[in-house]
Amino acid sequence: MYRFIRSFLFLLNPELAHHFSMKSLKLACFLGLIRRKSITSKPIMIMGLKFPNRIGLAAGLDKNAEYINPLSKLGFGFIEVGTVTPRSQPGNSKPRSFRLIEEEGIINRFGFNNVGIDQFIENIK
């Protein structure tokens, strides 16, 4: 299944593949196809905050706080959303994401594309 999905996503440009994947995750959660996962790891206390595990998601994947619930079902101990600016902005011009096939990597030059703080707060609510 992974090879099929990967092959399909690699037919799309990287940015479109990202958006498609995130929307698919949201739809799968809405339809109840993804149940909450738990990562078997000891909880950890850092600066007075208790996290269920040490695996976290850094900022940048969910810049507009649109996927907090679907991402939380994947078992992350914490999720950081953003980057957000006072007003919405488009970010860098396209193309701004590039696959490094042989290195199995990606270059991300999105910039600070986001919906702005007001919409961001509404999304969190």
Structure overview:
The strands form four sheets. The chain has a two-stranded antiparallel ribbon with strand order 1-2. The longest helix is centred in the first third of the chain and has 17 residues, at 14-30. It starts with a helix and ends with a helix. The chain has helices spanning 2-9, 14-30, 68-72, 117-124, and strands spanning 44-46, 49-51, 56-57, 78-79, 87-89, 97-100, 105-108, 114-116. The model has no long low-confidence stretch (mean pLDDT 93). Strand 6 (97-100) and strand 7 (105-108) form a beta hairpin. It has four helices and eight strands. By secondary structure, it is α+β, with helices and mostly antiparallel strands.
Q: What are the low-pLDDT stretches, counting only 5+ consecutive residues below 50?
A: none
Category by helix and strand content: alpha+beta
Placed side by side, the strands forming the largest sheet appear as 1-2
Helix proportion of residues, in percent? 25-40%
What is the mean predicted local confidence, pLDDT?
A: 93
Q: What is the radius of gyration computed over CA atoms, rounded to a whole number of angstroms?
A: 16 Å
Work out the helix count.
4
Distance between the termini: 35 Å
List the helices and strands in order: HHEEEHEEEEEH
As a percent range, the share of strand residues is 15-25%
Q: In this structure, how is the largest beta sheet organized? A: 2 strands, antiparallel
Label the overall shape.
globular
Q: Got a strand count?
A: 8
Helix-strand blueprint:
Elements: H1 2-9, H2 14-30, E1 44-46, E2 49-51, E3 56-57, H3 68-72, E4 78-79, E5 87-89, E6 97-100, E7 105-108, E8 114-116, H4 117-124
Parallel strand pairs: 3-4
Antiparallel strand pairs: 1-2, 5-8, 6-7
